[in-house]
Amino acid sequence: MSKKTVIIGATPNPTRYAYFAAGRLIENNHTIVPVGIKKGEVFNEDILDLTSKPTISDVDTVTMYIGPQNQNEWEDYILSLNPKRIIFNPGTENPSFADKAEKNGIEALNACTLVMLSANTY
Questions:
Q1: Over 90: is that where the pLDDT of 1 sits?
Q2: Residue 59: per-residue pLDDT
Q3: What is the pTM of this model?
């Protein structure tokens, strides 16, 4: 089953984990919505400008690729997407944001999107 996934911190840089995750999500037949501050494309999908807080509907998962020091100003926006879950990838863990998500009925996971895809637990 395809899970629409918003990638926060998307980048056109093929050496970054956010880029690699986008490719693996597509390979596993998930719809990606790349969102970030870098302009460009990720696997033929335009990176939406995070600063404009784009409206995105029917979000299953938000996968985080920005560090906790850069998350605070985007927390309310991410919660407004009303995802079923937020994956805090290694280096993005943020207990206070995770608690805020859980209080809003959103599952918060300290996990790795790439490992979850490899283990068929995504």
A1: no
A2: 99
A3: 0.97
Q: Which token pair is 74?
A: 């985007």
Who's near 83: CB < 8 A, 6+ residues apart?
6, 59, 60, 61, 62, 106
- Domain spans in the chain, listed from the N-terminal domain onward: 5-118
- 90, 116 contact by CB (below 8 A): no
SS3 state at 62: strand
Look at domain 5-118 and name its CATH class.
alpha beta
Write out pLDDT tens, residues 32-69: 999 999 999 999 999 999 999 999 999 999 999 999 99
The CA distances from residue 7 to 32, 60, 88, in Å, are: 7, 11, 11
Q: Which of 49, 55, 69, 57 is nearest to 8 (CA)?
A: 49
